[in-house]
Specification:
Layout (H helix, E strand, L loop, with lengths): L8 H28 L21 E11 L2 E12 L2 E9 L4 H13 L22 H17 L2
Antiparallel strand pairs: 1-2, 2-3
């Protein structure tokens, strides 16, 4: 007695759509993370030695960019550097509606304790107050600031 397993066409279509959607999400996440190279946890020096660059004291500003599900977003970042350490920082969110605005506001309200008092070379933010993409924008701005401040 042979049993014939028939696949319900509706189930097959649903599985195919879910698989395609999963692949698309994985590609989007991979391309976004490889574009920005943000893989370290919140504020971390794990496995990495601090760079030996020296930075001129001062206050520096840059605009960091990132891609959200709603499109390109940005935040303005100001960092004061003294003897290679961040002594003050402010963020000006640029999103003016939707989820991006909410996440940027949450990030801005919570990130300072992870940055102030740290060596500029040690700071790399990921998820802050539920916002993971705004950290990419912050890190982008911080890289620009490090270039500007390099003595």
């Amino acid at each position: 007695m042979q049993s014939k397993n028939k696949v319900n066409p509706t189930v097959a279509v649903i599985i195919a759509i879910a698989l395609i959607a999963s692949i698309a999400v994985a590609i989007a996440l991979f391309s976004n993370s490889s574009e920005r190279q943000q893989t370290s946890p919140t504020t971390s020096t794990q496995g990495a030695e601090p760079q030996t660059a020296t930075y001129a004291n001062g206050t520096y500003e840059a605009t960091g960019e990132y891609v959200s599900p709603g499109g390109r977003e940005s935040i303005d970042v100001s960092v004061t550097v003294m003897n290679g350490k961040i002594t003050d920082t402010t963020i000006t969110p640029n999103a003016d509606s939707g989820e991006a605005e909410e996440y940027q506001q949450r990030f801005a309200a919570s990130y300072k304790d992870m940055v102030v008092g740290k060596s500029i070379d040690e700071v790399s933010l990921t998820r802050v107050a539920g916002s993971s993409l705004t950290g990419i924008g912050f890190n982008d701005a911080l890289e620009q600031i490090k270039e500007d401040a390099a003595a």
